[in-house]
Amino acid sequence: KLFFTDYGNTAKIERCDMDGMNRTWIVDSKIEQPTALALDLVNKYVYWVDIYLDSVEVVDYQGRKRHTIIKGRQIRHLCGLAVFENYLYTVNSDNLSILRINRYNGTDVQSLARLDNAKEIRVYQKRTQTTVRSHACEEDPSGTPGGCSHICLLSSNYKARTCRCRTGFILGSDGRSCK
């Protein structure tokens, strides 16, 4: 799945398959300007920062179990969001500090370090990486991903795929080759 925020005409958080199909709104009320998003892949939760409402909130992948982690002025300048173990990590663009917020107890907020010009944060740790199993976009014997001549996108599950073409090409009738 692909998760993303939008704060155009109607602010929302959405999810869709990697090929863009099955687009679903998971949060579309009491949300104004969602700017950062982080996923708990193990427990299937979506965390986000709303800089207009000065809040960090969480919801499950289906849009249920919503609650506020932390709310207040300290949220106003947050950008970037990552989740690891019991904590959310974010960047305060006002004072360029890296913050750690307990995701179960929002009152536990610590400034860890300062970095010049930081706008995003990511946690890279082996436990945060899901185990890769055989999937529909693996290279076939000829070396093309999923048998697609240009782009292979996973669809509704790891066994299904959709082929797409680069700009200026159209997908052939075989659903794999681009012309």
UniProtKB/TrEMBL annotation:
Cellular component terms per the entry's GO annotation: plasma membrane
A biological process (GO) annotation for this entry? Answer: canonical Wnt signaling pathway
Q: Any idea which GO molecular function terms this record carries?
A: Wnt receptor activity; Wnt-protein binding
The UniProt entry, under PROSITE patterns, shows: LDLRB (PS51120)
Assigned keywords, A-Z: Lipoprotein, Receptor
Taxonomic superkingdom: Eukaryota
**Placement of LDL-receptor class B repeats on the sequence:** 1-43, 44-87
Pfam families, alphabetically?
A: FXa_inhibition (PF14670), Ldl_recept_b (PF00058)
Report whether Lipoprotein shows up as a keyword of the record: yes
Which Gene3D superfamilies does the protein's record reference?
TolB, C-terminal domain
What InterPro entries does the entry give?
6-blade_b-propeller_TolB-like, Cueball_EGF_LRP_Nidogen, LDLR_classB_rpt
Q: Is Lipid metabolism included in the keywords of this UniProt record?
A: no
Q: Give the protein name, as stated in the record.
A: Low-density lipoprotein receptor-related protein 1B
Q: Which organism is this protein's natural source?
A: Merops nubicus
Task: Tell me the lineage of the source organism.
Answer: Eukaryota, Metazoa, Chordata, Craniata, Vertebrata
